[in-house]
Structure formats: structure tokens, C-alpha cells
Write a structure and sequence with these properties.
450 residues; mainly beta; 15-stranded antiparallel β-sheet; 3-stranded mixed β-sheet; 5 helices; 11% helix; 50% strand; globular; membrane; mitochondrion; transmembrane beta strand; transmembrane
Length: 450
Amino acid sequence: MGSLDPLPMQGPELGVHADDIETPEMEQESKQEVLENKDVIVQHVHIDGLGRTKEDCLTYEIAGVFRAKNLIDVMKRAHEARQKLLRLGIFRQVEVVIDTSQGVDALPNGLDVTFEVTELRRMTGSYNTMVGNNEGSMVLGLKLPNVFGRAEKLTFQFSYGTKETSYGLSFFKPQPGHFERNFAVNFYKVTGQFPWSSLRETDRGVSTEFSFPLWKTNHTLKWEGVWRELGCLARTASFAVREESGHSLKSSLSHAMVIDTRNSTILPRRGALLKINQELAGYTGGDASFLKEDFELQFNKRLFWDSVLSASLWGGCLLPIGDKPTCIADRFYLGGPTSVRGFSMYSIGPQSEGDYLGGEVYWAGAVHLYTPLPFRPGKGGFGDLFRTHFFLNAGNLCNLNYGDGPRAHLSKLAECIRWSYGAGIVLRLGNIARLELNYCIPMGVQSGDR
């Protein structure tokens, strides 16, 4: 998506460089000890360079500086405050200046801390090209950061892709002093083509979200109202897909919980991830009624020789409410490079005349071993972006008869398991994406799978 100009994550150093000091190490340690032990008082904190930004919303971000007790603590807290100011997304640059207090009320051990900020422009535009999910798209964006002076953001985006075209307008409002607590409103239109189902879908909707942290978890509460228009992508579409064609209205409430301790979202070396989503449709209007639950669990462990072992598990269940069957647009799909490698995109499970209809319950698991390239070419440089990749994937997707007991459900999920194994090379493209070149051997292929 469109992005603001890169924000500097590192600014002027608050101390001095070690290379500039010619004194012995013991003398450095003694000076450090003197700085740590000397009591100071932060008397004033100034923010220079404000234009349209309201000072009251910044007070929460810099309040910790006043609690510093010594010079080293002042430096640490000033750096933390600087990071918080940059996180607001309203400043292009933030620099910190620490000086002795001046004026008639100045104390001998008093300090003044000044944050010199440069605000973003009132309006920024962007042009990007994106590649993902076997699709390329051109994205035009327009952003108005800090609309009302308290870190609000108004965003308009238009995306033209090889398979879908969309546009949307969103408004984002954080709570002052608690950036993780925020409120958002979105208006959008999205058109997508799904060749594996011979389906074309156009969504026009509005949604509201409220995000907040709770202990070590992050939560999002969401309401969404969407008018969906389903149509056939080709004349050869199956009768089952043609039956799904037409208009429907979905109004749903959803909740998402995330715990993420990974050091990276692209190629993590350590940490874990837990995602749990619930969606309830039909109780706030519309003609779609269902309860949908899904989860994702991932563990990453660093091993010997700079190798990493990663294990993942996904699962989900869609329960219709009432006599009306579930819609093809709400079901789960399985297969492809993001779930079970070696199978075509979403080409596992129930199908009719070559069109995949999705399923109401699924599970998938994966074990990956990432190792450095053999003989470590380019070690310490470009070669570190590449990893050798060994993997084992498995999963299943089906529909259940909810009149049967849990034992029958587990038995059906354990039948006809699709799995694959293989090896390849992974290239990490910064912290944005990853590129894989794999040799896959699919196993457990059932009739109709691709």
C-alpha cells in the first residue's frame, strides 16, 4: 500500500562515540559510573517545530522524561520518547537536545530536554506496484496525516490489479497517550476474480474497528456491513457456482486476538505467534447467518549451525445458523504456496465440475527447517539473505454433518489427508516479503485435486 516517506529510526547520538575517546577503558568505566550516579532533575521539556500538531496529545509521549534520576536515565528515556513521537506517524524527523537548565529558576543539577521535530506535509501521495498471492497490482494512494492535529489519519487508496480492482477511504484515530488503542472507519469497494472457483465477487461495504492491547495480547473488535455481488467468471462455470450467483448482504461482528513474540514476520528465527478469530453474522441484520472460528499457531526455534526449526498449525470451522446453507464466499480454502505446497492455489477439497467450492472445516500443519546456504557463499553480506529450505506440509478440507458426534468429525478430518514435502531456496526481501523457489513432491492426492 501507499506509504509515507521513511521515518528516520535513528537520529543524532545522545552521547559520544567510543572511537572518539582515547582514554583507557578503566577511565571510561569510571566516567560512566559518575554519570550514572550523579543525580539530575529534568526541569523543562520543550518541543520545537510544531505547526498544526496540538501539544496536549504529545504530553503523554514525553512524560517519562521527567522521571529520570541521572544523566544516563535521561538519555534512555529521551530516546524512548523520541521513538514514541516517531510512532505517531506525524513527524518526518525528531532530534533530541539535552542541555543544562537556564534562567532564574535553574538548579545546579537541572537539565532541559528539547525535541526538535519536523512535521509531515499536510498531504502526501504515493505510487506503488505490489506483487503477492500470484497477482500484480498498481496502487495509487493519497494520505492526509495529522488531519485535526492529534495524530488522526485520512487515507484514500485506489488499486488496479491483474485480477482485481479496489478503492477505499479510511479514517484512523488513536487515543492520546495510548497509540495501541485506536479507532478506524473504512468505506470500500473490492472486486476480485477467483479462477479456481470460476467466481467473480464485488464487495461494497463499511466497517468500524476498535483495537486495544490487553496484557500481552492485542485485540480488535470489528463490525462490518457488506453488500456482496457474486457472478460467474466463465461460461463453463458449474451449476453449483451458478446457484451461488446473485446479491447478498452480510452484517457481522468479529473479534481477533494476536500474541506475537517473533523477531520477524518474514523469516523469524525465534518466538511464537498465536492468532484467534471469531466472526458472528446474522444477529445484526443481513441474510448471511453463521459462526466462524479459525486460528493460527507458530513456533520458531534457533538450532545449531545458524539453522531454524519452524512449526505451524492452522484450523477453522464454519457453522451455519438456521436452515440456510453457508455461502461460497464465507467458506475456507486450502492449497497453494501459503498452505499446502505442491498443490495449486485453493485446489483441495469439495468441487463440482472442476470448480472448487471450499469447505466448512479445515486443518493444516507445516514443519520447516531453514539453514544457511552450503559453504556459506557471501557470508556477512548478500548471501545472508538466502536460506536453504526443507519442509513438510499436510492438511485437509471438507464439510461435516453437525448431527454426528465429535468422533465422527475427527475421523473425517483424518481421512484423505493431503501432504507434500520438498526443498528449495528462500530469499528474504527486506522486511516486506519472501521469495521461494521450491521442488515439491505432493502426496495423498485425491480425485479432483490439482
